[in-house]
Amino acid sequence: MRHIAVAVAAAVMFAMVAPAFAQPFADVPTNHWAYDAIAELAAKGLVEGYPDGTFKGDRAMTRYEMAMVVARLLARIESIQIPAPAPAPQVTKADLDALQRLINEFRAELAALGVRVTAIEEELNAIKARLDNVRISGNYRFRYDGGPSGSGASVNGNPQAFATDSGTSPTVFRARQGIKLMFDGSVAPDIHAIIGLDLASAGTSTPGTFNSSAAGGTPPTVTPNYMLADLAELYLDWNHAWGWPLRIQLGRMGGIQQGFGTLPMQFGPFGLLLNTNSDTYEASTNAAACGCHLFDGLRLSGNIPAWADFNWQAVVGRIQGPNGGSSYFLGEDAYGADANIRVIPGLRVGAYWVANNINSASSAFAAGATNALWHVYGPVIPMDNPPTSRCPATATGIQCPALGSGGGGYASWDVVPGIKLDGEVASWNDGVLGGSDSAYYVDAIIDLGAMTGIGHKLALTLSYENAGQNFYAPYQNDADYDICGCVGPGNAQMFTGDISFDFTDQWGFLGAYETGNNISNGQGITEWRVGVVYRFAPGARIYTRMENQRINGVSQYTLYRSQLDYTF
What we know:
By secondary structure, the chain is mostly beta strands. Helices cover 13% and strands 40% of the residues. The protein has helices spanning 2-13, 35-43, 63-78, 93-105, 107-112, 117-131, 448-452; strands at 134-146, 173-188, 191-201, 205-206, 221-222, 227-238, 247-255, 294-304, 310-320, 332-344, 347-358, 374-377, 398-401, 404-416, 419-430, 436-447, 457-467, 492-502, 507-517, 524-537, 540-551, 554-567. The chain has an 18-stranded antiparallel beta barrel.
């Protein structure tokens, strides 16, 4: 009976998708309480019985016989694909823990039988990871950076742009660090609760205006580091809702949090009217309470392959900051829809529409703004665009109309393997002063490494963007063509060249150069960045770079940065 009991316990612990089986042993009657379990073990090849066709369940199992059962079981476990094909085996964490105890008990015997115990344990850990209800991932970052910035009078009328070259200011360095933790809790394969927490130091430095050759001025100052904690993401994600091609995401999703980024709400390949992971809205004092912007709301999306691979999404949400009320359509809310189809293999075309609602009676507004219908760009991330009649200068930046609506269209074409072209055009209608303006963007992404076989990775991106002097769409992206995040959200045209080259698995080079001008005054803008990446472990790298921006020939800033990034 002890032999039968061990077999029953093994069957309970390691039940997989069972094949049909017949009576395996002559001495195990079909009405025996352990018959099904023993037959299943035999059908799976875990027990073989004796040469005379009997099971001998009334005899005690030897240690060697039990090791054979475990060895056969481990061979079956090792054959399971990770991730397992549907239907997934019904295995619990308790089952896996029990199996680990058996491995520990019979480790010597299993090694003598030639079982790859270490490989099996790696497979078990992979299965355990799939069974966890809550998965934790994250990003850690340490930065040491600094550099001189411009000073004195404004070069173009915006108090964020300086007429005195940054070379006359001292260099002040600072150390900062931050971490983002992501929690993914699931009760079913298609239903997840996502929580993202950011914690970062946020000390700041002011270079001052004195130098070694001139007396007077103000000395550089450094404020003590302090910690900022933010609930960056908190939303429910339900894919294939009710069995339909529908995805529902509800809660806090898009936004910039301490530089880590969150789930973006983006329309089109570039996001000329909507990209909540950009730095445009972050630069507004309407978001200055947290130095960021957040998107709390609802996103619906889906895909219907039979309809020319039709993709669609629709969003509505509160833009968080010190502005806005506590319910939708009482403060500052953005909403819109986006859809695209596949025209031919590799080519997609689409269109979108975006609008917002700002209720002055229930929305707070930034100091310097006329009312809640305006944003002031500059205080958080210095936006150094020149003022215009529609965007006059304030004490801290330029004030631009925020209320409005607009639409756009786009195309993305994978021409051949290694070459991709993108194009997007959009128009924004000013709901405060009236009138409209437009912007367009084109780029070519060339994977020279894939095309030529040179190097591990050699990629080149060439792009051009032209945003009219009154194109100040408040939720758009300017981060992709603007190195420092200082030019935008409108009134500029820029040519950009971006190159990345991994000359070994560990070492890589990154470089970018931009040239253009502001449209309203014609002043030239140049920006450049060079950097070296060292990947010293999986998910870990050190990125050291230098960058500079010039307006009308005057250096606005130079940045020296070394940064450790670790993803787990």
